[in-house]
Amino acid sequence: MAQWIDVCSVDDLQPDSGVCALVEGAQVAIFWMPETEAKVYAVGNYDPFGNANVLSRGLIGDIGGQPVVASPLYKQHYNLQTGVCLEDESVKIPVYAIRIDNGSVQVDLSSLPQDREPAL
Amino acid sequence: MTHLLTMARLLLCNLEHIISLPGLYMSVKQTLVVIGNGMVGQHFLSSLVESTIKEHYEIITFCEEPRAAYDRVHLSAFFTGTTAAELSLVEDGFFDRHGITLHLGDKAASIDRATKTVTSAKGLTIAYDKLVLATGSYPFVPPVPGHDRAQCLVYRTIEDLEAIAAAAKTGKIGTVVGGGLLGLEAAKALMDLGLETHVVEFAPRLMAVQLDDAGGAMLRRKIENLGVIVHTGKNTSIITDGESCINKMCFADGEELETDIVLFSAGIRPRDDIARACGLEVGQRGGIVIDNQCRTSDENIYAIGECALWNGMIYGLVAPGYTMARTVVADLAGNDASFTGADMSTKLKLMGVDVASIGDAHAKTQGAMVYTYQNGASEIYKRLVVSQDKKQLLGAVLVGEASGYSTLLQYCLNGIELPENPDALILPHRSDESVGLGPDALPASAQICSCYDVTKGAICSAIEGGCMTMSALKAETKAATGCGGCSALLKSVLDSELAKQGFEVNTDICEHFAYTRQDLHNLIRVEQIKTFSDLLHKHGKGHGCEICKPTVGNILASQWNEHILEKDHLGLQDTNDTFLANMQKDGTYSVVPRITGGEISPDMLIALGQVGKKYNLYTKITGGQRVDLFGARVDQLPHIWKELIDAGFESGHAYGKSLRTVKSCVGSTWCRYGVDDSVGLAIELENRYKGLRSPHKIKFAVSGCTRECAEAQGKDVGVIATENGWNLYVCGNGGMKPRHADLFATGLDKETLIKYIDRFLSFYVRTADRLQRTSVWMENMEGGLDYLKSVVLEDKLGLCDQLEQQMQYVIDTYQCEWKNAIADEAKLKRFRHFINSDRPDDNVIFVEERGQIRPADENERKHFKLVEVA
Question: How far is A89 from chain B (nearest CA, A)?
Answer without folding.
Answer: 20
